[in-house]
Design a protein that fits this description.
single chain, 660 residues, alpha/beta, six-stranded mixed β-sheet, 39% helix, 22% strand, elongated
Length: 660
């Protein structure tokens, strides 16, 4: 609903701009039919333009994870984080939604009542004759003459006096389809009931209808002076049916003035060309940038060591392979022929992220899990944007080669490479790594409940630090990582937790989830191993903690042993304020942002997990805003690929250090 309200707001702006254009440049001209087309056309165009979104693909450099020395507890964040913060709908959003639809219902209700009133009069009227495809009805009610679709309704009094001009006027309304236009604008008005521009547009459109019908009467041979007197005599009565075309209209003075006005020169109609830059501007403002992730370091290696057109490597994992040794075909150091592409204005670009597209469609067949290695496939994108000439440059097995070639042949269309303004062919090489793992079973998570005395409770038993290796199962190569969940009461000191973390670093391939005793919805991070000397080095200063990083992009968050929180040089205790300041800093510095989390050994575990949770909320809320900016959707509504790109636009970087 939020997206629809945003769309309707864009429509309102477009309507206002287009109406002002008509008001100042065309309203006073005598191009009645032309002005009708402009008014109705721009009204419809205002609803269509916000849906016309140009997508601009922009390469995005993916920053390498912030890697400081492992001993400084610079724990690398998870790259795939599920949304953990569900943003509730604010009360004003709900109230605005209710108010909007109440207005829509009210306007549509009025239109419906008006139509029903007209149909009742038509049904009760007496048909007297048919002329020029119109049905003429006479009613006993004392009403103004009006027309609706193919029916003309006159009162008995108007029927008994000379009425040729009245009929000519109403027939013109029917011939030009004025009722349909009014009905269309009424429906659009319901969706824009809060916008004064739509109501002024509707009034001007009805005015144009009267001008056009008056002009038709005069062109049919009616005397100008007598017709104007007829209008004045009929001006004493009123019509209450807003969707009908009434002979008596409240713009009598304007109608009489327009009848006597000389014709506008045709050259003034060219003013409508000013609409073109307005439309182009509206479409340009709607342009949406879609970021295509490009690893800066990998790109450098490709340009330095690989031929042009070398695509990102993708990996296909197969589980449940044979226990016996497999046939593995390693990729030679440089098995590739040189690809010499001429200098081009633009390279060929797939309409989708091709490597991702291919990776989602490759499946490791069970019967092929006796082989693994790297398949190199070369293909050409023709001048028509279609893939052809698929060749296997480096083979693993006939079956795996065939799978890769078969899927590449189904590639989405590409935008061909351009040279000197003409499409040219371009070749690409796609590496596909097939890997077999003997099991896909994820090791059972291990829960460590740290107690105040520094001992560890797990599985109903109590262990010391030196016995951790007896709790954590050994990690086998090629297997998923073990997740260790650390639990502790809020008053357990971080010194005891840090001792456990440092002991865990002696083990390989772990992920650690920091959770509280009341909730295991914690913060999961990879646990880097200790350096070769097996000693923990503690960062003494911020500069040592963030070597080579711009100091302006770092926000230090310090938690002392009393639980007091310092954001930079500012003491903040309120959770809402911490989130607000964190979001402001993250938005200001973007992908370069680094949060440094510093705690004492005397800091309570509850204070520690509280700040971790608030920092994660900061990232989730900023990512949600970025998702709406880039894709027009909430973060929780994105696909896995779209969410991954948002995570790359707002990469999580939280480094930690403890003080002994």
């Amino acid at each position: 609903m939020r997206n629809f309200l945003l769309y309707d707001a864009k429509v309102a702006v477009a309507l206002l701009v287009f109406y002002l254009f008509y008001r100042f440049l065309l309203k006073k001209e005598t191009f009645h039919r032309f002005n009708r087309v402009v008014l109705v056309g721009t009204a419809v165009l205002s609803f269509l333009l916000p849906l016309c979104i140009i997508t601009i693909h922009k390469p995005m450099e993916t920053a390498a994870p912030l890697v400081t020395e492992p001993a400084m507890v610079a724990e690398l964040p998870e790259q795939e984080l599920a949304p953990l913060v569900q943003v509730s709908e604010p009360w004003w959003h709900v109230a605005l939604t209710i108010l909007f639809w109440a207005g829509v219902a009210f306007v549509l209700g009025r239109v419906l009542i008006s139509i029903l009133s007209i149909l009742r009069i038509i049904r009760q009227g007496e048909p007297v004759r048919k002329e020029d495809g119109c049905r003429i009805l006479v009613t006993e009610r004392d009403i103004d003459p009006f027309s609706w679709m193919k029916d003309i309704v006159l009162s008995r009094k108007d029927w008994e006096i000379p009425h040729e001009s009245i009929l000519a006027h109403e027939k013109a309304h029917i011939a030009y389809g004025h009722s349909i236009e009014i009905l269309l604008v009424d429906v659009l008005s319901a969706l824009q009931w809060f916008n004064p521009a739509i109501w002024m547009l509707r009034a001007d459109l009805k005015e144009l209808h009267e001008y056009e019908a008056d002009d038709a009467v005069l062109r049919a041979g009616a005397n100008l002076r007598e017709y104007q007197y007829l209008l004045i005599r009929k001006a004493v009565s009123k019509s209450g049916y807003s969707v009908a075309n009434s002979f008596n209209h409240s713009i009598l003075k304007n109608r009489i003035t327009m009848m006597s006005k000389s014709r506008s020169p045709l050259s003034r109609g060219l003013r409508v060309l000013w609409l073109l830059p307005l439309v182009c501007l509206a479409i340009g403002l709607q342009a949406r940038t879609v970021y295509v992730p490009v690893d800066k370091d990998s790109e450098k290696n490709v340009s330095d060591e690989k031929p042009q057109g070398y695509l990102s490597e993708i990996v296909v994992i197969g589980y449940g392979g044979p226990e016996a040794p497999r046939h593995h075909k390693s990729l030679e150091k440089d098995p590739l022929p040189s690809i010499k592409n001429p200098d081009m204005d633009t390279e060929a670009v797939c309409r989708e992220n091709f490597s991702w597209w291919l990776n989602t469609r490759l499946v490791y067949p069970d019967e092929a899990k006796t082989d693994d290695g790297t398949v190199l496939a070369k293909f050409t994108v023709g001048t028509d944007g279609k893939v052809k000439d698929i060749t296997i440059l480096w083979s693993v097995s006939e079956q795996l080669d065939g799978i890769v070639a078969q899927q590449i042949a189904k590639s989405p269309e590409w935008t061909p490479a351009m040279k000197e303004g003409k499409p040219v062919e371009m070749s690409f090489i796609q590496p596909v790594v097939f890997m077999v793992r003997t099991s896909s079973k994820t090791p059972s998570p291990v829960v460590l409940n740290i107690r105040k005395d520094g001992t560890i409770e797990s599985g109903g038993k109590v262990y010391t630090l030196s016995q951790l290796k007896d709790i954590i199962p050994p990690h086998a190569a090629g297997q998923p990582q073990t997740t260790v969940t650390i639990l502790a009461a809020d008053d357990v000191l971080m010194g005891a937790v840090d001792d456990v973390k440092n002991e865990l670093r002696k083990l390989e391939s772990l992920k650690v989830n920091y959770a509280s005793a009341s909730s295991r919805e914690g913060i999961t991070r990879y646990m880097p191993p200790l350096p070769e000397n097996g000693k923990v080095k503690v960062a003494k200063t911020v500069d040592e903690m963030f070597q080579g990083v711009d100091r302006e992009t770092i926000l230090m968050i310090r938690i002392n042993s009393l639980g007091a929180v310092m954001l930079g040089n500012r003491r903040v205790q309120d959770d809402v304020e911490i989130v607000r300041l964190g979001k402001a800093f993250l938005k200001q510095h973007g992908k370069e942002t680094h949060f440094g989390l510093h705690h004492d050994r005397g800091t309570g575990y509850g204070a520690y997990t509280r700040i971790q949770t608030l920092l994660k909320q900061v990232y989730e809320e900023v990512r949600d805003e970025k998702a709406q900016e880039v894709y027009g959707k909430r973060l929780q509504d994105l696909s896995a690929d779209e969410r991954a790109q948002i995570n790359l636009l707002v990469p999580l970087s939280i480094s930690e250090a403890e003080t002994i």
